[in-house]
Structures are given as C-alpha cells and as structure tokens.
C-alpha cells in the first residue's frame, strides 16, 4: 500500500479521536523559516559537541536510570551514527539505549513506518516493559506518532527540535525533504497534519532552541494545557542538540522519573539561567510566540 493512501485512510480516524479531547483549532505553525544568519550559525554545533565532553565527566552526579529501554531516532538525512554519542551517554547513566536500525532517515515512507513499529515492538517484547522514545528533529516527529499509535507500550516521548507543528514556510529544508520523502508535505491531508500537531497520549517533553537555524522554533513547541506535556528551552544549534549539555541534563532528569509519577521539569536554582531564552526577537523572528497564546 503506498504511503500516501495509508495516510489518507488513517487521518480521518486519528483526527476524530483527537478532536474528542481537543479544540478544533489550527495548531500548524506558519512562522517564517529561520534567517540565513541563523542557518549559517548552525556551525556552532561544533561547540555543543565539544561541550559534551565535560558533561560526560559529570554524569555520575546526574539522576541514574532504572534500566528501562530507550529508543533513539535520528534526524532527517542522518543515520544512527549521529546518535551514537547520545546513546552511549544514556547507557552510561543506566538505560538500555538502542538505535533504530533503519539506515538513513530519508523521510517518511510506508516501509519505514512499519519498520519503526516493528523495532519498538521488538524491544518491548525483549525487555517486558514500556519503552521511552527520544527523537532528534524529524526523528521526534516519528516518535510522537508511534506513541500515538501504541500508547500502551510507550512510557514517554522526548523530542529535540522536532517540527511536529511545521509548515513548509517554517523550514529551511522543506524542498530537500520533498525530494526524498515518499509523501511530500503539500500532499499530506490537512486533517493528518492537524492531528500530528496534538501531543500523543503519553507524557511528552519538547526540547527547543530559539536559535534553531533549520526549522522555526515555533514549530517545535507544544501548544497544550495537559499537565504531562511541557516545553523546555535548551538553546544552542539545531544540529548540536544531540550533544548539547543542557539536553543531556534534561534527558537524565526526564527519563529517571518512575513510571506513572511524571512531574514537570524544574531545574536546580543555580541552573535556571541556562534554560532561559537569551535570543533577541530580531534574530529569531520571534514576534509570534505560541507559548503566550495557549487556549
């Protein structure tokens, strides 16, 4: 079955299910794509990677895991090689971290969808417990949709710069995405995209940076009043999120929560400035702030 036909059949059912619990509003973000300046500044991801090294030395002082499985999804055009440092970090602090084993992330396809489902099911059956899903950029969009389809076996979802409320106008790579994906964005039903903008029915954390040079930061944040849904500003570059020390700290904190005892993130007092926004609005096209207009 072609992926576009599968999406067309699935989207009305998913939307009907979602709208029973949510208002029928347009959650798709229509912000400007990040400026060329921010896109060029993505090179600072090298600093994020370098900053990961001292963080690794401090990992024994972070919340330790309970050995539950964690599956990490790579971003667009990336493979599991890009998530190897992150997966090793998670393994070192007490988790059974795993790669997705599906090669390069070349965009959505029917085959990829069922490959991801099989991978999640395989790990859950292997360990006999729920799994946490961590996704970088487009990988986080996949993680959310898997959690939406299989909430009974997903413990929580953490996304990193994932444009789950995105629109072509809010991305610097949408033309490249359409070149590779089986279903171009413009051919996805609006009902499917609206449903995708709603959080899945499991605890969900969206990590974002207003300095994102790849996708508009507004498209990477949740607009929800649910208690178990949150946004955390981590700063840095989009391409450096998998190495960003603030991301590593948040992941250690979020994943360490006992199942069924989720609480919103609250950094130690001395670290609170690290999670504030220091980017001026003129740099990030920040006149539209979805976090200030929640309904």
Question: What do these coordinates show?
Answer:
The chain has 295 residues and is an alpha/beta fold. The protein has a single domain, classed as Alpha/Beta hydrolase fold, catalytic domain (Rossmann fold, 3-Layer(aba) Sandwich), CATH 3.40.50.1820. 35% of the residues lie in helices and 11% in strands. It has ten helices and six strands, in the order αααβαβαβαβααββαα. It has helices at residues 3-19, 36-40, 45-57, 84-92, 110-127, 138-149, 174-180, 190-196, 245-255, 281-284; strands at 69-73, 96-98, 131-136, 154-160, 204-208, 229-233. It has a six-stranded parallel beta sheet with strand order 2-1-3-4-5-6, sandwiched between helices. Helix 4 (84-92) links the parallel strand 1 and strand 2. Helix 1 crosses helix 8. The longest helix has 18 residues, at 110-127. It is globular, with a radius of gyration of 18 Å. The chain starts with a helix and ends in an 11-residue tail after the last helix.
Question: Mean of the pLDDT scores?
Answer: 88
> Would you identify the CATH H-level superfamily?
Alpha/Beta hydrolase fold, catalytic domain
Assigned CATH class: Alpha Beta
Overall form: globular
| Number of DSSP-assigned strands | 6
Largest sheet: spatial strand order: 2-1-3-4-5-6
Provide the CATH topology: Rossmann fold
Instruction: Count the domains.
Output: 1
Query: Uncertain regions: pLDDT < 50 for 5+ in a row?
Result: 9-23
H-E order? HHHEHEHEHEHHEEHH
Helix share bin: 25-40%
Radius of gyration: 18 Å
Largest sheet: 6 strands, parallel
* Count of individual helical segments: 10
| Gross CATH architecture | 3-Layer(aba) Sandwich
Structural class: alpha/beta
- Report how far the terminal alpha carbons are from each other: 38 Å
Q: Strand share of the residues?
A: 5-15%
């Amino acid at each position: 079955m072609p992926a576009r036909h599968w999406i067309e059949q699935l989207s009305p059912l998913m939307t009907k299910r979602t709208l029973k619990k949510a208002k029928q509003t347009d959650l798709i973000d229509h912000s400007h794509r990040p400026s060329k300046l921010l896109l060029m500044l993505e090179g600072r991801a090298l600093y994020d990677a370098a900053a990961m090294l001292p963080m690794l030395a401090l990992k024994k002082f972070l919340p330790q895991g309970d050995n539950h499985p964690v599956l990490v999804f790579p971003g667009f055009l990336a493979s599991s090689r890009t998530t190897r440092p992150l997966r090793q970090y998670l393994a070192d602090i007490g988790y059974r971290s795993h790669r997705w084993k599906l090669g390069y992330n070349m965009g959505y396809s029917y085959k990829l969808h069922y490959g991801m489902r099989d991978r999640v099911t395989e790990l859950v059956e292997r360990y006999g417990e729920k799994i946490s899903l961590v996704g970088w950029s487009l990988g986080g969009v996949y993680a959310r949709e898997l959690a939406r389809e299989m909430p009974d076996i997903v413990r929580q979802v953490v996304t990193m710069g994932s444009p789950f409320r995105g629109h072509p106008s809010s991305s610097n790579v949408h033309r490249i995405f359409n070149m590779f994906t089986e279903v171009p964005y413009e051919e996805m039903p609006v009902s499917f995209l609206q449903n995708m903008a709603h959080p899945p029915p499991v605890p969900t954390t969206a990590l974002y940076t207003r300095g994102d040079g790849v996708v508009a930061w507004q498209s990477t944040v949740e607009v929800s009043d649910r208690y178990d849904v949150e946004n955390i500003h981590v700063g840095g570059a989009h391409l450096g999120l998998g190495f960003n020390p603030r991301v590593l700290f948040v992941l250690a904190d979020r994943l360490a929560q006992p199942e069924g005892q989720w609480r919103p993130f609250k950094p130690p007092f001395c670290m609170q400035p690290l999670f504030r926004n220091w980017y001026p609005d003129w740099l990030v096209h920040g006149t539209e702030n979805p976090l200030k207009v929640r309904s």
